[in-house]
Amino acid sequence: MTTITTQDYSIYFNNNSYKALNKHLKKLKYSKVFILCDTNTNIDCVPFLLANIDTDITYDILEIDPGEESKNLDICLGLWETLSEYGADRKSVIINVGGGVVTDLGGFVASTFKRGIDFINIPTSLLAMVDASIGGKTGIDLGSLKNQIGVISTPELIVVDTSFLGTLPQLEMRSGLAEMLKHGLIYDESYWNKLQDLSESTIDDLDALIYESIIIKKNIVEQDPTEQNLRKTLNYGHTLGHAIESYFMENDTKKRLLHGEAIAIGIILANYLSVKYCGFSENKSNSIKAIIKAIYGHVEINETDYTPIVELLKYDKKNEHGNINFVLLEAIGKPKTDCIVENEAILEAFKFYDA
């Protein structure tokens, strides 16, 4: 796969990526390297990375627990203190090796330590490869509320090694697929069509689909890096999806949902609202629901859950002047931002999902 060059950094793939990483480390002459990982990627991915790094720079490994629960201010505080204790300075670099939690958290820690040090992302999950590690969004959660604290700060470079996907459980692969499905729906119907049945796909096919998904996100972000308009379209399915994810995270009676599982539900709900408010095809909405449910199954959301989920919408990052703003579709590949939706319609959307 050919290197993708953005306005601020480059994305390197597979074997060529480590050559680029070593060249960068040699050129910048960092004082120290810190490798941020979780307990899983420390076992499954960091040894391979270390075997491919060719540098005499001293490195330390910073390990966190896996999962969304680690994406909080207490973990940041511990990492900032450790960086200080281990002698990190403004010429140090953090290499984030992990999924979206690690790249979001690590980017935020790096961007705020000593007013900002360099960081490099090595995404190891499908979700991080096609979405979380790209575009410069870094941040942490505020309790169960997703990504409430953060800054936009771009990495020095990104290493995408798809061999790391072999370490993932199927549920994590499925979670990442939701962001790829979203890219197809908001940007390119032909790409959406390619994703509908992956049962016969080869490794090369998957690499090509990952590459295309990264290109889609890159093209959107470059046109609107600070999310004033077009970049908001990347939140399709996320307004209700994030609320559902937060609700299931904080509710002890609910089974925790992975990010992509919640976004898949959010896409179905957004499609219903798109039919109601934007003239989106009802037949396509029904077809998309069937395809997504075939992949993700059905999650039980009771009527008693509807109101507390809707209450969480007031914390959505796209809100302006007290309005809850949705991204909806006029057609596949034709999104519309800043759509205001009535609560009654949201309740109808939940019933559509449940049907």
From TrEMBL:
EC number: 4.2.3.4
A GO MF term: metal ion binding
Positions of the 3-dehydroquinate synthase N-terminal domain: 63-174
Cofactor field: Zn(2+); Co(2+); NAD(+)
Keywords from the UniProt entry: Cobalt, Lyase, Metal-binding, NAD, Nucleotide-binding, Zinc
GO biological process: one example: aromatic amino acid family biosynthetic process
SUPFAM superfamilies: Dehydroquinate synthase-like
Role this protein plays: Catalyzes the conversion of 3-deoxy-D-arabino-heptulosonate 7-phosphate (DAHP) to dehydroquinate (DHQ).
Protein name according to UniProt: 3-dehydroquinate synthase
Organism of this sequence: Lacinutrix venerupis
